[in-house]
Amino acid sequence: MIELKHLERSYKTGHIESWVLRRINLNIRQGEFVTIMGPSGAGKSSLLNVLAMLDDQWRGSFHFDGVAVHELNRKQRADLARRRIGMVFQSYHLLDDLTVAENIDLPLSYKDIPKADRTALVADALDRFNIVGKKDLFPSQLSGGQQQLVGIARAVVHSPTLLLADEPTGNLHSEQAREVMELFEKLNQQGVTIVQVTHSEVNAAYGSRTIELRDGWLTSDSAAIASEVQQ
Amino acid sequence: MIDAVLQDIRYALRWLRKSPGFTLVAVLTLALGIGANTAIFTLVHAVLLKNLPVVDPNSLVRLGDNEYCCNLNLSSMGPDYTIFSYPGYKYLRDHTPEFDQLAAMQAGMADLSVRRAATNANATPRSAFGEFVSGNYFQTFGIQPYAGRVLSPADDTDAAAPVAVISYQTWQHDFAGDPSIIGSTFLMNTHPVTIIGVTPPAFYGDRMSTDPPGFFLPISQQPTLGSSPERDEASLGWLFLIGRVKPGTSLPTLQAKLSGLQQQALSTLPDMQTAYGKTQLAKAHIVLTPGGLGIANMQHQAANSLYLLMALAGLVLLIACANIANLLLVRGMGRRAETSIRLALGAFRARIIRQMLTESIVLACLGGLAGIVVAYGATSLLLALMFTDAPGLPIHAAPSLPVLGFAFAVSLLTGLLFGVAPAWLTSREEPADAMRVSSRTTKSSSSLLQRSLVVLQAALSIVLLIGAGLLGKSLNNLEHRDFGLDASNRVIVNLNPLKAGYKPEQLQGLYQQIEDKFHAMPGVQNIGLSLYTPLQGTSWSFWVFAQGEPEPAAGHFIGSSFNRANPDYFRSVGQRIIRGRAFTDADTATAPAVAIVNQAFVKRLFKPGENPIGRRIGAGVAANSSDYEIVGVVDNTKYVDAHEENDPPMFFLPLLQPGHFGPKHLDSAPAKPAAIDASLYAQALVLQMNALTPDLELNVRKTLAEIDPNLTVDHYATFASQISGNFTQERMISRLTLTFGLLALVLASVGLYGITSYGILRRTSEIGIRMALGAERTSVVSMVLRGSMLQCALGILIGIPIALLCAHFVTALSTLLFGVQFWDLTVLSLATLSLSFAAVIAGIIPARRAASIQPMDALRTE
Ligand SMILES: Nc1ncnc2c1ncn2[C@@H]1O[C@H](COP(=O)(O)OP(=O)(O)O)[C@@H](O)[C@H]1O
Ligand SMILES: [Mg+2]
Do A95 and B779 touch (CB under 8 A)? Predict the structure, then answer.
């Protein structure tokens, strides 16, 4: 599903060019649950941004379901991402002025979906995540765990095939974290490909494959090790 | 206490230095706002508030409260008297010991042709204005001479030698301040007059005018130097009266007494003997008004416009205030932490409010200082715009003490106005907030107050823009209205053969010579001669009567303007002959008396469908109604007032046929041996040219000098500029309002831009999230634009009714709007469009910036 070859990303600050992703080669198949780990500043978020197609300043090749992302222009990438990808953030990034239901509706509102269908989809998501009773509350009236639940509901309401999560449990205590991970597990079982960034081995255990980044280099990949072992 | 204030001021200055960008924008905005107000106030003060530069102006009173001018029949102008005959003046003066002095001054000005006799016999005379005044004129005002002496009552007697006082300005300007002028003899209108002194530099006479008199002459000289012997005519009003009352005089009592005296003075007039006259006489009265401003006609004319401009400038300042309040609110947010810490450290809210108000006031005063500079420049520009050629006008751009005081007061007020809300809001910060880690939020972009301020700005701007549009359209209507004239390639030369010493019997030769000489000039098509020309600001008028029509009842007489014309006059001003004929060379002084009338005259005097050609009419009294036979009818034209809706009736007589404008037995009365018909003296020469060449004026002057060196040119102008001169005031107001409107537009746009930019700054993460969730750039742009357009639209919705209400009042209370409905749709839509356009521009820049937010970066700020 995802095929990265020689992917590189650097930031220029003044005259200094600092590399944050270095010659990344990575294949992720449909239905995988991948965990990216690594110390702070290793480039995990940068990689996730590339996958989310929020970034377009990288070099290398990136195929998404056979589509050559590196050949798409900005608008086409945004279009592809809008249809296929959902994102969950560490600090939830809910809009404070919108209710729970309105927040969940947000990704739908940017697509050509009839109002009635949107309402149905939102109702469905509320139902699936057990937050129907909270639909008219504002984010500030929810606990962190509940907010992240809304964040996940918002990320999957339009049925993306790829779910990206950047430290989704970073601001939660372990009980809430477990709940989120179980949710991810369930989504994965329903066929959603998941790529998450986490510092927690416990969280990583929910996934099927772990990748490690250090100083922008992909230093270890459990799938590769597994395949070596098989050979 | 003083120390604390000084410390506050020191903090304020430090704070302003710390953010030079903000300080610069704020000071500039304030400088424009305060500058505009100070400039207009400079005019208001100079024109409306400043007394004459005379001794104790507050004890001066003027007799009369209207603007009648300049030569009027007393029996027809009543019952509220402002203008007086010379015998009438003497009667009032001699019966009112309540007055320390009661002075009389000519209502109009005397045209003089002046030449210094001794030095150079061949020198060409100059045109100048003189004013006939009573001998106690300077005494009344307490004016001491700059050199020589001023007039005294002894100079104002029949036996006295002819003398005049020259004004300081004329002395400097025309005679280079030559001291030998005092005691020398001048020829004025060919009569010798001795100059006895110079007025002080600040003195400009008894009224503000663009052309103050250059010479003050005793009334005793009037029969010799004036255009007709008005002095002893009891029925002719031509004098204004100003007196200095003795301390402790009750003005209401004096007013009642003067009204009684006036009735007695008028009771001897023949016109007052009829039944109608008696009823009029019983109503005759005089209203006393403050005399410190002198003859305040110019002030009365300018007052409405100045008040309007003052109000408009005030709106601009309000917009500026809203802008700065907004900037301060934004900065207040930035200082929330500082304020919370101060509060946590135990500062009183009052102390914080005081500090912030001090900052605003210091800021406003800096703006005020810059505003004074702006005002000086703006006033100079304004004066140049309003009075193109008025060296004698006593209005100066340099700020006087009251103007400086005004600027300071406005600055203080402005500082309070824009400072109070931000100070209050900031002081309500909770101390606990400071201790919390600065929490990032996607909460609403800007406070309600800030958005209301932008809405207010938009509303005020639309008011100004609509005002500018209405006034501009009104001016355009005026300038392009059909005056019934053709001004192209025409020039108007004003002269006066009377001043050159011509006797009535010499006039025919003179006119013949003028026509011949000018016809010989290359490029001349037509030569018109008349008493005066259309829209020149002059008018003669009389009651008119038609033979065979019922005589109107007393009090319902029909007035008509009157002019004289040579055969080519109508063609020369482009006035069409509708019926009958123009005058011809055969209409000589001895030929049958004929007249030409305009259509309005026909409509007023004859029944519909009646043929006016061949009918007889007369002027002055009903007994004259068979004097002239109508031989032609001309098209209506605007003649006296360019703003006039209705066309006034007019009749024309040939240049030299005798005219009768009063009872015939008086024409030859032995009491008036010098009586001449002043209307025989043509005072306007119209030249219709093939083209206007640059050397035309010179050639005209040369040609006139060849005919007679004493024929001085009083005024030279193209016909077009004479007409457009009628709209100087409108043009000035319209331009100023447009300037204010544009200024408002810019300020409001800057305000909208600022608030939108700031909003986007605060919404960066929200916009980033939206884009990460799939929002397109265009939808971000339209979201931001929708916000700013909403404020603009609200402003328009609020502003339009206010503007309409104001415009309605202006239309109802003044004649400032000509031919424009106050709800003019073109103007409304244009104003709305320009504001919306400005709002789009002001919104699109931050909106595009919002759309270029990288969601990745926006989300990274954690
Ligand atoms: N917009 C940016 N400009 C400059 N440097 C950046 C930017 N974004 C990330 N970096 C740098 O790139 C490196 C990797 O960052 P990031 O991908 O956020 O690391 P991680 O998520 O693994 O902690 C860091 O050193 C960071 O400082
Ligand atoms: Mg990270």
Answer: no
